[in-house]
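Section: Multi-chain targets

For targets with more than one molecule, the full set of components is provided together so that the structure can be written out for the assembly as a whole rather than chain by chain. Components appear in the order listed by the source. The example entry contains three components.
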Amino acid sequence: MNLQLFIPELTLAIFAIAVILLDLFVQRKGVLAGVSVAGLVISAGFTLTMWGSEPQTIFNNMLAVDSFALFFKLLFTGIAILVILASVDYASKLTNLQGEYYALVLLSVLGMMLMAAATELISIYVALGLTSLSLCALVGFLKDSKSSEAALKYFLLSAMVSAVLLFGMALVFGVTGETQLSKIAQVIQAMPLTNITDNPALVLGVVLLIVGFGFKIAAVPFHMWVPDVYEGAPTPITAYLSVGSKAAGFAVILRIFSSAFGLPEWLSLNWGMLFAVLAAISMTLGNVVALPQTNIKRMLGYSSIAQAGYLMVGLATVGILPTADVLGQSAILFFLASYTVTNLGAFIAIIAISNKTNSDLIQDFSGMIRRAPGLALALTLCLVSLIGMPPAAGFMAKFYIFSAGVHSGLLWLVIIAVLNSVISAYYYLRVVKVMWFGEPTSTEKVFSSGALRFSLFITSIGVLLLGILPGLVMKLTEAASKMLAFLP
Amino acid sequence: MSVGLEHYLILSAALFSIGFYGALAKKNAIIILMCIELMINAVNIAMAAFSRYSVPVLLTGQVFIIFIIVVAAAEVAVGLAIIMNIYRSRETTETDKIDLMKW
Amino acid sequence: MIASELIWLIFLLPVFSFIIVSLFIRPSVKPTSKIAGYITITAISASLVLSLWTLLTVMAEPKHELAVPDFSWLTVGDLTIRIGLMIDSLTAVMLVVVTVVSLMVQIYSQGYMHGDPGYHRYYAWMSLFTASMLGVIMANSLLLIFFFWELVGLCSYLLIGFWFHRPAAANAAKKAFVVTRLGDFGFLAAILLLYTNTGTFNIPELHEMAITGVLAGTTLTWAAIGIFAGAIGKSAQFPLHVWLPDAMEGPTPVSALIHAATMVAAGVFLVARTFPLFVNSATAVTIVAVIGAFTAIFAATMGLVMNDMKRVVAYSTISQLGYMMLGLGAAGLALRQEGHVTLELAKAAAAIGIFHLFNHAFFKALLFLGAGSVNHATNTFDMRQMGGLRKVMPWTYATFVIGALSLAGIWPLSGFWSKDEILAVTWDTQRVLFTLVMITVLMTAFYIFRVVFLTFSGQYRGSDPGSHGQEHDHTTHLHESSPVMVAPMVILAILAIISGFWNITGSFDAFMGHGETRSFASGLFGIFTHPLPWIALLVAGLGIFLAYAIYGAKWLSAERIGHIFRPLYIIFSRKYWFDELYENVIVKLILLKWVFAALEKIDTKVVDGAVNGLANTVRTIYRIALLNGIFDILQRVDGTKIEKANGVIKEPNKNWWQVDGIVNVMANGVTASGEALKKTQTGQLQLYGLVIGLGVVAIILVLYFAG
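Its structure, encoded as tokens over all components, is:
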């Protein structure tokens, strides 16, 4: 075994511990953020050096080191860097707990990286546990009543769901006798078709897995936690949850479903259709309920449910045409990348604004274009991207994923999705309208810290770059998706 | 009557359902947490039984269980901390009273 | 011979000026500085020079086409999207139209927008608009056209709502955006339909397939109709015409550029661009011709009675766009009658409509700039407040009359030549439509000269234009506009006179692909060997005479005539109640009263029954704990229903994001369901868990029964 391949994760673990220790000695807590970012950058650097090499596995085939995992590792470290930059102002309120805050962020990134790399049920479960526990702690970090309520809800529901997920894993293990995804695939493919169709245990297992990860990606009907937790959690963590946790969920789903349950066709067609239906329900419910929201974090919570719906169009594509090409997989990865920069950008702008106004209500964003032109412009760009209008990233992402949908014959789903995009335009544009055309509630300018402005700048560039020159990232996502066929 | 795989599975399913019911029906957060532990342990039983009956030579299932126990222990630690936290701010652990955020 | 890199610059120069103005000038330079205007004008002048060069190059080419190498933009699976330019005679003509009018408008705006606090913002958006309009013209794939199409729509939205602090402007912007989106939906559907059937977005390839019959039948018809739907929205054709008059809330130069000369003509351009698709479907060309002719007369009737100078010109724009559509449709019909359809002939058939577009762009922009100039002096658009401006504003008067004569179709001004061609081809194909547009000729001459006489002759009727200004707060007395505003009007006036001469020799038709040339003199006078031009001139003259009789010489009393035709007057001036129809009848009555009521009924009977039944079952199972939760939801859902029944839909925050008309009610409908669904999120942890559990059960049941 080659421990070198594990260096990105090791780096993060070491830096997480180092940050906690450093917290004891350093007076200027800003250093901690710097150290965490350094750790993430180093980890990302190590990850980059592995890009393009042959896919390998480590720890007895428990973790894969392939372009798919590396893509997500880069995505997660990128997310975490931006989240930490966005937290600097925020965390300064928590004078004596900053070390834990940054360490927990690093640990959750570690968990997500493992989730993307895991190729085996046990490692998937452990990685999932690491991720959700550190996220739970982060959600409840503020100790005010909203934050702790959010943490309790998130914790109890995710514990409940992870028990359900475990039951699913037990069933799959029981039917196949294997925990390796590739070996599960071999066993299932070797079974006569009737054994599968008449075997409710396997189907039930698959359904329970969908439930478990559906919770992570906020698919309806496993979405109920999302708005409450998003509203209550510290805003940088909300941003983190909305992109990181979702991306990790999709990474695992893609890995499990395209390698373990990709064949036979009967099975993949069934879960493909299941995802298609969940996609339709998720986007409709998310968009419709987002309309009357008055709190922007809550609104973005529902919006993220809807976005999960669009993403699941890609999953449905994968299920319905598992062997054709990697269009669906690649579209999901691209959508995730673009959703990441877009949503992070939106949240960072919201953090910057509500740091000053101390309110998340949409009406308090009124006239923001005059109080903070840069922030309002960036937020507008991100919202435009969330609608899916050119030239922002969201347009390309939707175009890509919808064309994958059309390609696999899911025209009805794509029509629903397009209609949903129209509905969603109302509530996103509502915020834009309030910001541009509303009367400012005060004339005081809103200033933001350098870290925030820097991270906002990065995300805005990302949104435009992915929208205008999507080819660069599409090459990466296609290379990453091809790796899903690789079975250790 | 010899005890076979299905008996274990029925036990496991029953325990899981009881746990799930409890998690939904009980209002005290700590009891809910205990019910979730029950669900996890039901899974452990199923896992061990599967391991014993379908791949008797390997210990995959048992290893899995050890990992589950470890994660579950960590889960309880975090969970109790969160519940303590909310008890300090609200003086209650009744979940139906914890609905500051809705709609 | 122009290099292909330079052709890209035509489009890129305005993009650069947009970037420079919006990113560098606007944040750092005071709005009183004119630098943003200079940058924009420089960029567009350069584009104009390059466009002219392109035109000459294309004219020199034997097939009137330039091959510009394209490049691959992105690869999605096996689909590669290439970006490229399509430079043919149509593009070359349109390039010149857009850059000329845009340049004139930008120069004029230096005077008109001077001192406006949003001066830089104005120029930034104008640059962006010009760039995207050029993009629409030059793109070689439908997807790319759609991209720029949406972008011009966005710019139009931003510029109509330029003075967003005025509610009328903000509402008009929204209305324009939403109504054109309705058409765009059809366009997008057509693009997807074409793509699924042919696997390409490339326009030349689609042309090829349509002509060779690979693409035919209902697919082709529906695709053409979808594209036409997009054109209806952008070109404000019936029944999506309602947004254009309201769009006059924007600054007048914007109306001249976007809502007269270029963007609204994009619909006509789109039909011309995809004309080989239309020609192969009898249904599609007939629809184009009928909608065009109907819009022409329909809009003209409303133009008869408006008192707002700018709105008259706006309705005349709709009407003239109808002419262009009719020109396209009728030419298509004529081509089908001849029976032999080739790619060249199909493309050449678009020449008639495009020629009118070409001429119209100049004289209509001129009329708008004239209206803006009048407004600049009088601070109003209400013609009842004007009169006698001929003496104070001689330049504006002279140029405006030239524009009006051209619009009325008086020989030898440009409008005459293109309108005559449309009338001729309609006479050959469709006599009913011919009658309609002949009546329209009368109306056109009448209403535009009504404007001329009301505004420029007689005595000044307004009060001293004080500080109650509509667009500006100048405290000025009546005066001629500054040279920077007059100069563009003069240039446009010259163009309005001579632009029609291009086709006197038949060379425009030849350039577009098909047609014999003749000598200038025989073209100029030889036209009168046919009876049709005589009739058209006579009718137009009659219209002008009527206008003079009523508003100039006052032989007839306008009040008396208005009284006699009172029912018609009411219908026209209320715009056939179309706004009310859309807002009240379709949206409020049909959607709200019937559709939503029906949904609600289904909701109460079926869903509630099911939910109640479920609730009872669940109650027996989970006796203690869940009772509360479920009943809580039921109560809350019922609660929203009561609210709905009482006062349509109760909206707590209505006042700060209210949207008007269609949008309002559509949004309300969806919002109401959102409100109801929102209440299911009770904040109760157990309920969330229960929903997850029920979700699992539902999935399993569905799989069990369906799989």
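Chain A has one domain: 3-484.
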